[in-house]
Design goal:
This protein is α/β, with parallel strands linked by helices. Among the domains are: 319-479, Glycogen Phosphorylase B (Rossmann fold); 560-808, Rossmann fold (3-Layer(aba) Sandwich). It is built from 34 helices and 24 strands. Helix 3 crosses helix 4 (95-102), helix 7 (135-149) packs across helix 34 (812-824) and helix 12 (341-353) packs across helix 15 (394-414). It binds ligand Z2T. Ligand Z2T binds at residues 133-136, 139, 288-289, 336, 374-375, 380, 452, 482, 674-678, 696. Residues 133-136, 139, 288-289, 336, 374-375, 380, 452, 482, 674-678, 696 line the site of ligand Z2T.
Amino acid sequence: VEASIPEPQRKAWLAHQTSGFKDKDGFETEVVRHVETTLARSMYNCDEQAAYSACSLAFRDRLILEWNRTQQRQTFADSKRVYYLSLEFLMGRALDNAMLNIGQKDVAKAGLAELGFRIEDVIEQEHDAALGNGGLGRLAACFLDSLASLNYSAWGYGLRYRYGIFKQEIIDGYQVEVPDYWLDFNPWEFPRHDVTVDIQFYGHVTKRTDDNGKTIATWEGGEIVKAVAYDVPIPGYATPSTNNLRLWSSKAASGEFDFQKFNSGDYENSVADQQRAETISAVLYPNDNLDRGKELRLKQQYFWVAASLYDIVRRFKKSRRAWKEFPDQVAIQLNDTHPTLAVVELQRILVDLEGLDWEEAWNIVTNTFGYTNHTVLPEALEKWSVPLFQHLLPRHLQLIYDINLFFLQSVERKFPKDREMLARVSIIEESQPKMVRMAHLAIVGSHKVNGVAELHSDLIKTTIFKDFVEVFGPDKFTNVTNGITPRRWLHQANPRLSELISSKTGSQNFLKDLTELAKIEHYKDDKAFRKEWAEIKYANKVRLAKHIKKTTGVDVNPSALFDVQVKRIHEYKRQQMNIFGVIHRYLTLKSLSPEERKKFQPRVSIFGGKAAPGYWMAKQIIHLINAVGAVVNNDKDIGDLLKVIFLEDYNVSKAEMIIPASDLSEHISTAGTEASGTSNMKFVLNGGLIIGTCDGANIEITREIGEQNIFLFGNLAEDVEDIRHNHTYGSYTVDPDLVKVFEAIEKGTFGEPNDFMGMISAVRDHGDFYLVSDDFHSYIETQELVDKAYRDQEGWITKSIESVARMGFFSSDRCINEYAEGIWNIEPLAVKDQ
Ligand code: Z2T
């Protein structure tokens, strides 16, 4: 393993080799020690769960040494740090990743084998850390991996939810949510009971004038909740750098109980107070691309932001620098608007607590923050009601009004007498009740605003943030196309493909510089290489087929075309179009003679993804997929020609198994609605082809891999608005093939038709907002092209190899380097300096 780690990283790493295991015996000694002491068990009753725990503890010990050294190195260097503030970190499992990033999975495999365990079974024991909903949270996790791997001084800040995203069970075809209590045993976190911050809520503001005539505001009263830090080490790949993810947990301020109440006999209320405090970090809100405006969510946001800023400011103050140097030492990235209160909180710290002038403070604030927007969907843009703000954070509301006043004055100077413009850009929406527009606050409080793919970044400049481009000029708005970490999404998820690639590129350096993938294109006509390529895909499909059999009882043929759509269930992502397409295919097959059917390309349509618990339409889509599966999978006429599978509880660790097994994946959002998408990149990196719309990062993927290697269809983003307008005001007919699909559903082919009428009438009666009917024909036609292309297996393999070879751009390393240079103004820290 060591020999495969690229120079010069290997040298730097070896120089710090206090941390690795010497050999498998050294590893085994540590595992046995942890079983016998930390876990207090004997090796004679060490099951797989105990082996997982001990193995994790052994690796954790190694990580923590490097974690300490990295923190020391960063402190001595005293250079700029970046702080990534995200309400979600969708980390998945840690053990496999730690073993691979440290470069000692082989040692562990050999050691565990001697102790009587298969490493795959041990890895499977780990519960996913699922502190996120979907793309946004997983992006944050990929960024942490890249920041550590590239030796940036970087911290993540988030919330330590007691319950992550719910576990999904499918019962009688319906989604049922089960709480995800994941903290029973988590060896990857370190409680820092000495790192706590008191966080204030509610109360009131008093103002007085000091001797110089300056107004001093004081926020008093209310209640205090304690934030306790939990640290999670983030190992870089093939580097000793181990960064920190700090997650805050809430606790009652006055210890476990309110002893006054306790002693006066009010035991129940003292417990209730404690529980109320702990509620703040209790549960992740399970909405993807939807804002529900709940008070507890605002409390979570302030709790986390205030604790993180206190921590950041405390660290800055240790360097005894002047405040004006703050932005030279600190860059803070806002992952969507969720942490936007940080803008106001830093201004409050500087003005109210540190006594800086407004102007000077505001300069520091705006030079510190960058804001990443992840969506244009209006229902996802955060707004908080002014009365709620007034109640929970009275001083912050005042500061927001002041920030808005100065901002609107500057707009007025640039656009005199344009009252409409002022109303449009104001941070306060003049509705009933008034609302604080968090995106506006984030733009005004940051020096850079970025979208996450080219089309998306263009769209925000021409639609939702158009006025701000006029106010601030175009240079404030930029694009950083998303990326994924090739360590988890190639090396870890698809070890055989990673191995094959390294055998052709000559080393594993492509995992550090993904553009080296280009080298494999020289082998695209090499017979042995192509054979191995196809065998790996087949083996991955066999593994998934086994999982399908085990979890659903359905037999699928691994030689069929595996067609996968796994992502959160959302109308804009159009799983409904996919399942309507599947029904169309079923009806077509039924109408053919047995002879004609034989010419058909067998397919397995695989779905997976969670619906937000309150999202009725998304749940209906899940129900229809399962209902169609129940009919199709048991139809003797159909056999292996078509199977429909819904995989329960899609999450990061399942993605690691599903993605390498796909032939075709679907990224079919209505053009202009998916900001980027990141699973599209993961599928292509694993040799799968894509059927997709001209949306998000699909466009840049096409540019990189070539139009001949992707199946694009559907209307373009630029035409969507007109089409919608025509739905409402013009003539409008549903696509004839789709009409037949609806008729089949309404006849009861898939059970009670009323269960699915919401989906049908959204298209037929309610304006088809997501253009399902408009795109249906070209979707079906393109699926036929896919069938044809797949029957030419040699051609398909060529497309697959070419695509992978050209995916270098989509590494999150490239993405992080763009943020570092264009937004954070920060350089990697040399590791040899220690
Ligand atoms: C989310 O996962 C995304 C956007 C959001 O906007 C919220 C959530 Cl929870 C508020 C996704 C986008 O839908 C997806 O296109 C993008 O690839 C991903 O963020 C990362 O940028």
